[in-house]
Design a protein that fits this description.
alpha+beta, seven-stranded antiparallel beta sheet, CO_DH_gsu, Carbon monoxide dehydrogenase subunit G (CoxG), globular, START-like_dom_sf, Alpha-D-Glucose-1,6-Bisphosphate, Chain A, domain 4
């Protein structure tokens, strides 16, 4: 499964990049995230509860960041296990561009799933993944660049 999109944030690239590396901001932004632990600058561990169709599962997993292109670009890879519900692994490439204090975040993500989740059908998985990504970026935007009242 592949996902790609972009979001515009009313914040400078430095703030967006810092937020993408802040475990507390990420925990608040990731739908269903119960815990996010930063083990190092490149290693994170997460516990997330998700409901995909009829399957609800608690996933535990690890994420590894490659920040060699930072702050303009970085990539991440991860894997998670949801017990009987299944497992997932994948990654994403992220680019940040700034113009006049406004940052555009573009991402290309890919994931492979197995177990019960894989039996749900690709359309359900794809639509759920798009919905979760949209929720992440809505949450992220509210923390990083809240709308002015």
């Amino acid at each position: 499964m592949d996902l790609a999109d972009e979001i515009t944030l009313n914040a400078p690239k430095s703030r967006v990049y810092a937020a993408l590396n802040d475990p507390e901001i990420l925990r608040q932004s990731i739908p269903g995230c119960e815990e996010l632990i930063k083990h190092s600058d490149t290693e994170l561990e997460a516990r997330v509860v998700l409901k995909i169709g009829p399957v609800k599962a608690r996933f535990t997993g690890t994420v590894t960041l490659d920040t060699s292109g930072a702050p303009d670009a970085f990539s991440l890879t991860g894997q998670g296990n949801g017990g009987a519900a299944g497992h997932a692994k994948g990654g994403a490439d992220v680019t940040l561009t700034e113009e006049n204090g406004v940052t555009t975040l573009r991402y290309n993500a890919r994931a492979d799933i197995g177990g019960k989740l894989a039996q749900l059908g690709s359309r359900l998985i794809q639509s759920t993944a798009k919905k979760l990504a949209a929720q992440f970026f809505t949450n992220f935007q509210e923390v990083v660049a809240p709308a002015e009242v």
